[in-house]
Specification:
By secondary structure, this protein is mainly α. It contains 8 helices and 2 strands. It has 2 domains: about 90 residues, Orthogonal Bundle (Rna Polymerase Sigma Factor, Chain: A), CATH 1.10.1740; about 80 residues, Arc Repressor Mutant, subunit A (Orthogonal Bundle). Strands 1-2 form a two-stranded antiparallel ribbon. β1 and β2 form a beta hairpin. The radius of gyration is 19 Å and the shape is elongated.
Length: about 190
């Protein structure tokens, strides 16, 4: 991230902040999408994070830490969005007509849906650690710095999250077992 843009934005330069936003929006959205699992909620959280970043950028002491600081703000926005989230949201997305359809991706779709259900059962703090570590490819130390928590906490959240995901996948693999996702019974 260009530290000069950060410094200029800290001094009220709206064009510099606009450039920062354009540069970091895709990363922030990707993180929010990973945490929330819904593009509409992710966009809401990302927009709120951009507003919060603009409001608080003068408080950032070290411009070199802008990226981690912006992730931390986004994580807080995602947590708030997840708490406000309705019990049921349609997950279907309309695909453009010019994209070819896959003839038989049933197994891949079932696997993805099973992973998504397991992921959505996790508490937000565990989802955040998984997304930062695996989706954004951060080291555990970088995750700890981004979230401003001890690295041991990151390790324990990641361990609990992976154990919960394994348990969810094993539970779904048993025939006739139903589970609850956001209050809805899923077979």
């Amino acid at each position: 991230m260009d530290q000069d843009l950060v410094v200029r934005a800290q001094h009220g330069d709206q064009r510099a902040f606009e450039s920062l936003t354009i540069a970091c929006h895709p990363r922030l959205f990707r993180l929010a999408q990973g945490i929330l699992g819904n593009p509409h909620l992710a966009e809401d959280a990302t927009q709120q994070a951009c507003l919060d970043i603009w409001r608080d950028i003068r408080r950032l002491r070290d411009p070199a830490k802008f990226e981690g600081w912006s992730y931390r703000i986004l994580v807080h926005c995602c947590t708030r969005e997840a708490k406000r989230r309705p019990k049921w949201l349609p997950e279907a997305e309309m695909q453009p007509a010019d994209e070819p359809s896959v003839i038989d991706a049933t197994d891949a779709i079932l696997d993805r849906d099973q992973l998504e259900r397991g992921f959505q059962r996790l508490p937000v703090d565990q989802r955040v650690v998984i997304v930062l570590h695996y989706l954004l490819d951060m080291t555990l130390e970088q995750v700890a710095e981004t979230l401003d928590i001890p690295s041991g906490t990151v390790c324990s959240r990641l361990s609990r999250a992976m154990a919960a995901m394994r348990a969810a996948l094993e539970s779904d693999a048993r025939p006739g077992v139903s589970t609850r996702v956001h209050g809805e019974v899923v077979r």
